[in-house]
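Worked problem 6 (solution included).
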Amino acid sequence: MARRIPPIAVPATLALFYLAHAYRVNAGLISLSQLAYFAFVLALLVLSFQKLFQWLAGDGMKAAWLNTCQLVLILFFGDLQDALSRIPLFSAFSGYRFLLPTLAVLQLLVLWLIRRSNAPSVRTVIFPTILCTTLALSEGIQGLVFSGRRGIEAKAIREGSPRVLRDPEIWYILLDEYMGNDGLNEMFGYDNGRFVQQLDSLGFQWAPHPRSQYEFTVYSMASILSQRPVTSPRLQDIRSNTDYQFALRSIRNNQVCAYLKDRDYDVVNLSIFDLPGAPAILDHPNMPRGSRLLVYNTLWGRLSKDLPHILGQAGLEDPNDDDAGAMERNNAAMRMTLAEARKTHALQRFVYLHLNMPHGPMAMDSTGSMYPVLKPGEKPVPGERDQRYLQYLVYTNKVMVGFLDSLKTATSGEAAIMLASDHGYRTDCSRGHPDTRYDAILAAYLPAAYRLQMPAGNFNNIDQFGMLFHALFNEPFQPTPLQPWPPCR
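Solution. The predicted structure is:
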């Protein structure tokens, strides 16, 4: 049997295991064509490494083991980095400054030892080949089963909901990282009353004390659209591949869209997330989707996400080079929204617009003027980020008043419009006020035939749509209690 197994079987089956694992983790989030393309690229990588290491080591078996070591480093780098970061004793060594040189030295050491050793027996490929093949089959079967279950769950969500002929359209405007009025008062001493009054004049009602359950966008939006907590606030971790994908799947198969689709709503997606039957048309560099999810946890995936920031800190790259692009993406999304509002439509619409305002890069002051671009290596003065955030928030207010006025006019005042945020400003923990990052906003406009009862006390952001559906469709509504927030990290 050993003679029939070529040396390349070990790295090839390891790559097959990673491919099956990526399919299971990303089940329902990637297409078969994207998976096939990734498999083709991975096969080329395995073959190229085998040729390279055979030239360096002069032996096919030695090359196979060097190939395997290299693939483990590249494909499972994120898992190693996350594992180290979760162990207090080793968390300080999980950064690139220590981890990459250490792994490079270990790779050179392994190359040196394998080149000096005798050629491994062909029998050494039997166990790892069988192990990787078994693991790949297990992961693939779990992925198929999981995809089937998600389809059954999505169908079950849609069953049993009442149908009506015509309901008000719903326009959901999400301002990323917009801190609520309580947090602005506490941290900045800023009274946001003028913005409240301006929206009052447009007919918007305000929830006085909305609170986000999470500090990361993907978890917050997953819980809002699923109308339930998706994990404990103490367990939220955007670096965990499994948790991140679970949150994305919760958004892609969310109950809000499923319920509205059953009421004959058409979902129009102007966000950075895939929704049921409505893929995202906007892109965000820090929110991977599609084929980028397959490399999210690899060495390349981690470096491509973090390298611009690392180079900016080292003075090798301009950290503000995409500020203008980020501003234009927001403006383009608002133009698309107003253009959509002016269209005639056969069905009532649920439109989700996600704006990275006042989320970074916070490149504009309150007048809409761009901040001077930092020179390579130049760092903001202490406290400048906080001031830029506040200035950009004031600018966001001005933009939103005009935008919401135009949206209300385009929909003839007959659509429900919700303005909300996912979480508050994530300031440095050393600055104090750790809980202000959970202060959010919620304001809503409803047509004259409907009445929305805003809560007077603390309000869990998860209940946004439950409260709206109670007002529009008389659905039962039970407030969700807030869970304790984790310590500031």
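Discussion: The CA atoms of residues 278 and 344 lie 19 Å apart.
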